Amino acid sequence: GIVKTRHSEVLLWSRVLQSNHNPITGVLHQRQSAELYQLRRYLPDAALAELIEQFWLVDWDLRGKAAHIQQNLPDPNFHLVINTGTVTLLGPVSKSYSYEMQGRGQIIGVKFALGALAERLNFRPADFIDKQLEVEQVFNLDTSRLLSELSAANSDQQRVAILQSCFKPFAIAPSEQGARLRQLVSLIKQQSDITKVESLSEHSNLSVQAIQRCFRQYLGINPKWLIRKYRLHQALLLLEQQSVEIADLVEVLGYTDQSHLIRDFKEFLDVTPAAYTRLP
Question: Which domain holds residue 255?
Answer without folding.
Answer: 176-278
